[in-house]
């Protein structure tokens, strides 16, 4: 049985669409007019031009919708590139994980030196001749993890008389070989330090502690040679 010829939409169309509002209807009308010669040559030319225009616009709209869909799925927005460029602050003291935008270019020593609340720590690192060590990568290329006490943490410790070697051992008790991010810490975990003694990690109710008394208040401050976590209490090893 031969296929029925397409017919132009009428006002009695049950779907109550406006005449020729869709690409499909316009195409049907163009085919119908060309086959049955119901319109003049000029009108046919206009219909063909309209059909081409609708096709181009429809393709452009579809492309833009698809691009927006991809952006939402990948977590990107039109301002994503600007926001990453404007994210200059590398230090995270909020207790929430935040990585540096792009490649971390500051070493652990330089990162700590750029933050006023770590001026005491930086001064002691200089006294113990450890600034150079934390300014470059480790020999195995895995970097370091530093649990950095704030100035307030050292103030809580009070006046302590230590030799330079003892001071060095206290500071090395805050340094772990390798880059250990917060998601790699677990409750009861034993973490060896460069001092030779271990730290005990405790996790309870979303709070992370070291040796039961030092609270981790900021995590995952990424440097070029490792990562820094902030603590509110100085860790004291056996001297």
**CATH superfamily of the largest domain, called what?**
FAS1 domain
CATH architecture of the largest domain: Roll
Number of helices: 7
Please tally the β strands and state the result: 7
Summed up, the domain count is: 2
| Beta-strand percentage range | 15-25%
- Give me the Rg, rounded: 34 Å
Biggest β-sheet: strands ordered side by side in the sheet = 2-1-7-6-5-4-3
Report the helical percentage: 25-40%
Outline: elongated
Mean pLDDT: 74
Would you state the CATH class of the largest domain? Mainly Beta
Structural class: alpha+beta
Question: What series of H and E elements makes up the topology?
Answer: HHHHHEHHEEEEEE
Low-confidence stretches: 16-20, 59-102
CATH topology of the largest domain: FAS1 domain
Main beta-sheet strand count, sense and barrel state: 7 strands, mixed
N→C terminal distance: 100 Å
Task: Give a brief description.
The protein is an alpha+beta fold. The chain has helices at residues 23-36, 41-73, 80-86, 108-113, 119-127, 151-157, 164-172, and strands at 144-149, 175-177, 190-192, 198-204, 207-210, 214-223, 226-231. It has 2 domains: 1-76; 90-231, FAS1 domain.
Entry keywords:
elongated; 7 helices; 239 residues; 2 domains; alpha+beta; 16% strand; seven-stranded mixed beta sheet; FAS1 domain
Give an account of the 3D structure.
It is built from 7 helices and 7 strands; from the N terminus they run H-H-H-H-H-E-H-H-E-E-E-E-E-E. With 239 residues, the protein is α+β, with helices and mostly antiparallel strands. It folds into 2 domains: 1-76; 90-231, FAS1 domain (Roll). The chain has a 7-stranded mixed beta sheet with strand order 2-1-7-6-5-4-3. The chain starts with 22 loop residues before the first helix and ends in an 8-residue tail after the last strand. Residues 1-21, 67-101 are annotated as: Disordered.
């Amino acid at each position: 049985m031969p296929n029925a010829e397409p017919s132009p939409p009428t006002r009695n169309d049950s779907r109550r669409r406006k005449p020729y509002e869709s690409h499909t209807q316009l195409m049907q009308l163009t085919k119908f007019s060309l086959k049955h010669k119901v319109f003049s040559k000029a009108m046919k030319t206009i219909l063909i031009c309209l059909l081409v225009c609708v096709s181009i616009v429809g393709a452009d709209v579809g492309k833009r919708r698809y691009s927006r869909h991809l952006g939402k799925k990948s977590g990107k927005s039109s301002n994503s590139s600007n926001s990453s460029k404007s994210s200059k602050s590398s230090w995270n003291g909020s207790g929430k994980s935040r990585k540096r935008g792009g490649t971390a270019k500051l070493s652990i020593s330089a990162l700590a030196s750029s933050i006023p609340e770590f001026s005491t720590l930086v001064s002691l690192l200089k006294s113990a001749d450890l600034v150079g060590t934390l300014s470059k990568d480790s020999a195995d290329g895995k970097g370091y993890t530093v649990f950095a006490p704030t100035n307030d943490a050292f103030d809580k410790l009070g006046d302590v008389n230590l030799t330079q070697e003892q001071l060095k051992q206290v500071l090395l008790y805050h340094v772990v070989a390798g880059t250990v991010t917060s998601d790699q810490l677990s409750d009861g975990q034993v973490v060896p330090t460069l001092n030779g003694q271990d730290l005990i990690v405790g996790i309870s109710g979303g709070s992370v502690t070291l040796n039961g008394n030092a609270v981790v208040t900021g995590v995952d401050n990424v440097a070029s040679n490792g990562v820094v976590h902030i603590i509110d209490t100085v860790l004291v090893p056996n001297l």
